[in-house]
Amino acid sequence: MNAPLRPAVAPLITAENLTIRMDGQEVLTNVSLAIQRAEIVTILGPNGSGKSTLLRALLGILRPASGTVTQRPGLVIGYVPQKLAVDRTLPMTVRRFLSLPVRVTDTDAASALIRVGMPDVAQRQMADLSGGQFQRILLARALLARPDILILDEPTQGLDQPGEAAFYRLIEEVRRETGVAVLMVSHDLHVVMAASDRVICLNGHVCCEGTPRVVSNAPEYRALFGLGTQGALALYQHVHDHSHDHGHHHGHDHGHDHSPHDHHGHDHGHDHGHHLHKDHDHA
Question: Is pLDDT of 274 > 60?
């Protein structure tokens, strides 16, 4: 006797044949995608490709001209905006910021700060934080809602490469420990987090999608974004299988995945277990 089929788990967010017009111009055309529980999806696209417009439509802020956006009933979204202006003349501690717009307990606030690796900043002023610290606080606030999905709009814009790598590592850890899904727009056409389950290339429509390895070799990707890196899609990869052996110590055993082909205009440095490499060199 065959075992009964278990019902398929509904996607967290689904867009079907989504078309959006703004000021009489078609910004997105027939975009379809679905975000599943606990997956990391990165959206790449040039300026003006409709990336932020797509996020706003998925959040329900923009009404499509045609097509549908469906959120799973009861879905909780944690949103990390691209930029958030803070009046530097207005006193605002991190702790107070975490209670905007919904007040949270000291215990929950402390747990969120620990989760993003900033346990001792509750009483610091928001205006005094570095760019990377500020993004981590935005992430902490988003996590306070215990979301099913995190939606991040270019969260590493303005960060240097070590800061970008550290933020990607944090996102990967949060996904692994909480099971939250992640939908992220990347400002860098040539660098994505290696932990991405899927990469979607957007230019008014979905040009191509798949795993980072598949997309890096897709002719549509190379046609759009190939200039400057010979079509190579570089990945931030977090490697756990061997320790540093360079005569220095970082307090942990994350290693680098070394390749003789990875130097194409990036300053790799030692990003605490992250490494930037061209994925098609390892196909």
Answer: no
Q: 190, 197, 194: which is closest to 221 by C-alpha?
A: 190
Alpha carbons 248 and 194: distance in angstroms, whole number: 25
H-run or E-run covering 244 = none
Q: What is the pTM of this model?
A: 0.78
Cβ 48 vs Cβ 202: under 8 Å: no
Comparison of pLDDT for 7 and 202, the residue scoring more: 202
- Residues with Cβ within 8 Å of 4's Cβ and at least 6 positions away in sequence, in order, are none
Cβ atoms of 56 and 40 closer than 8 Å: no
- DSSP-derived secondary structure for 77-116: EEEE-S-----TTS--BHHHHHTSSS---HHHHHHHHHHT
Q: Would you say 182 and 41 are in contact if contact means Cβ atoms under 8 Å apart?
A: yes
Going by the DSSP 8-state scheme, the letter that residue 20 receives in this structure is: E
pLDDT exceeds cutoff 70 at 2: no
